[in-house]
Amino acid sequence: MSVTITFPDGSERRYDSDVTGAEIAASIGPRLAKAAVAVKLDGVATDLNRAIAQDGMVEIVTEDSEEGRHVLRHSAAHVMAQAVLDLFDGAKFAIGPPIADGFYYDFEVEQPFTPEDLERIEERMAEIIAEDQPFERDELSVAEALDVFGNQPFKTEIIESVDEQEGAGGSEVSVYRNLEFVDLCRGPHVPSTKRLKAVKLMRSAGAYWRGDENRAQLQRIYGTAWESKAALAAYLERLEEAERRDHRKLGQELELYSFPSELGSGLAVWHPKGGLLRTIIEDYSRRTHLAHDYEIVATPHVAKADLWQQSGHLDFYAEGMYPGMVLDETTEYRMKPMNCPFHILIFGSRSRSYRELPLRLFELGTVYRYERSGVIHGLMRARGFTQDDSHIFCEEKDIAAELQNLLDFTLMVLRDFGFTEFEADLSTKDPEKYIGSDDLWDKAEDALRLALETAELPYEVAEGEGAFYGPKIDVHVRDAIGRRWQLSTLQVDFAQPDNFDLLYASDHNTRERPVMIHRALMGSIERFVGILVEHYAGALPGWLAPVQATIVPVADRHVAYASEVAERLHTEGLRIDVDAADDTVGEKIRRAITQKHPAVLVVGDSDVAAQTAGLRLRGEDERRGVALDEVAASLVELCRAPR
Fold first, then answer.
1. How far is CA 272 from the centre of its chain?
2. What is the pTM of this model?
3. How large is the angle between the packed helices 628-638 and 559-570, nearest 10 degrees?
């Protein structure tokens, strides 16, 4: 008996039946065998040592791939749970999944873990790894699994829920063992613990079982695992750099914004420099939209709950909305979580003709969403934020052209802010949950796909991840240290025009339903500022910097001349600060550099006499005795806005 194995390049080989993934990898070459951690058969990942008894497509999963790291981290989570149960009598363990760049495991223990506890756990993990314990898969009946995990309440709850879903008595659960330790798991895992070459525990925190604050509070340990010590070191270095760039810390240091506890979680106040930065970004957004045939609108922050019922938000999004306010004795109002129903009302306020389409409405609209406190993160995940929101109403035949226009516009804007690396996700129809005709969905998905391919934008298809009312594109950027951020969304909507009975007069004088496209480029101004601050490590490009140059007078007698220079530069539209504090020149220069101002000017006696200044541009050495016209020209060029 033999099986035919097809490889990703289309080539085929025949092997004896029951060949393992490890044997297939070894037959290809020793380097692949050494790097292999799992195998995929017809797209389904499984253990290297499991027999393959059927023909199929095989892909070897290596430790330096994202899927391979997922396997490493999953296996490391098991080893961590094993170490905790070894060290802490009576510990109960819950779940331990791999996550982005790492893994975690939740435990119920008598006291929260301390840094010293993490050191002990990591030492025990190193011992388990050195013992080269094999990971062995087994299938148990529900009754057998309940017997094995009888003293582990979180595991028994999981087993019982599986039994309920599958039908009493008719289900099995898979477990993995490494020596005396056993855990519920679908796998796959590395062949043995010794394959875990670089593991580190990072921190611990509280977490509720099942994410429910009414259930048991557990202790969560986070860790990371990589294919080599070099890869781990590089990751830790990236973490240090990310911490240095943390927008929350830099926002305070640069006096941009803060998060006073008196406001409540997820809300920020913007200081003068931060308010100016927002204004610069918002002004750019307004003039750029006006130049591309958008019409600016403005809408209120609240509306009657009936509006949100009609739009469907109260049915699908109520948990993310703030509670209602009963006003005018009996009328319930809601703070808006989205701007779209207001723009729909504008479209429907009068009769529309095909001659007006596409109608592109744009608003910098502030919305309010009740995010759980555990997910709030500075400006990146807030409860109140302003979206650069647009809704385009067009004819069905114009969907493709409009989406191409939108994607080109999106990439232009993101490039203006200094982003150069883009990726996208194309979310398609969920076959179980969608509205509208299959033909219309196919047209919309094809139009989105064509727009991505025309823009030569790399993308992945997220099958079935579209909203019930239409497919979408999510555009991601890579920042200066390689992190991936989701920013822009382009979403086709077939539902809202129906919900609100929107119509327009066609060129054949018939009443037709428009197609609606939702579009946000920056996502929200707040989050976009946070990403920019981290991308540039606070050293914003000249056109965005709230203060574009600081003038440092050498002594008090030079303050008047410094003010004259500032006025001269103000006439060029530059944002200038004079530091007249009673400090040394060195302290003033250091302050300007620490505040990450793009330029520093120093003026003394010779400059007053010659009408010059010392000029230091960010990243360059100081030039002395630069004529003011040349100073102005250099700063204007440095601070020129993209458009």
1. 28
2. 0.84
3. 50
Q: What mean pLDDT do residues 131-149 have?
A: 93
What average pLDDT score do residues 33-56 get?
A: 92
Catalytic residues: 340, 369, 387, 389, 391, 472, 518
Q: Positive or negative, the Cα torsion across 437, 439, 442, 448? A: negative
What's the chain's length in residues? 643
Quote the CA–CA distance of 293 and 362 in Å, as a whole number: 10
Residue 622: CATH number of its domain: 3.40.50.800
- What is d(CA 283, CA 142) in angstroms, rounded to the nearest whole number? 62
What pLDDT is stored for residue 634 in this prediction?
96
In 3D, which of 616, 579, 531 has the Cα closest to residue 247? 531
Last residue of some domain: 490, 509, 535? 535
Of the pLDDT bands very low, low, confident and very high (cuts 50, 70, 90), residue 165 is low
Structural domains counted in the chain: 4
**Are 641 and 543 in contact, with CB atoms under 8 Å apart?**
yes
- Opening angle at CA 405, ends 409 and 369, nearest 5: 60
Give residue 169's pLDDT.
46
Q: What is the pLDDT of residue 467?
A: 79
DSSP 263-324: G-TT--EE-HHHHHHHHHHHHHHHHHHHTTT-EE----SEEEHHHHHHHTHHHHSGGGSPPP
- Whether residues 47 and 120 share a domain: the answer is no
Q: What pLDDT, on a 0 to 100 scale, did the predictor assign at position 470?
A: 84
Q: How confident is the model at residue 168 (pLDDT cuts 50, 70, 90)?
A: very low
Q: What domain range is 81 assigned to?
A: 67-242
Nearest residue to 282 via CA among 533, 576, 529: 529
Angle (nearest 5°) at CA 292 between 288 and 295: 90
CA separation for the pair 171, 181 (Å, rounded):
23
| pLDDT tens-digit readout, 336-375 | 999 999 999 999 999 999 999 999 999 999 999 998 877 8
* Beta bridge mates, 388: 364
Angle at 291 between CA 287 and CA 297, to 5 degrees: 65
Task: Give per-residue burial for 74-106: e unless 16+ CB within 10 Å, then b.
Answer: bbbbbbbbbbbbbebeebbbbbbebeeebbbbb
* Beta bridge partner(s), residue 484: 478
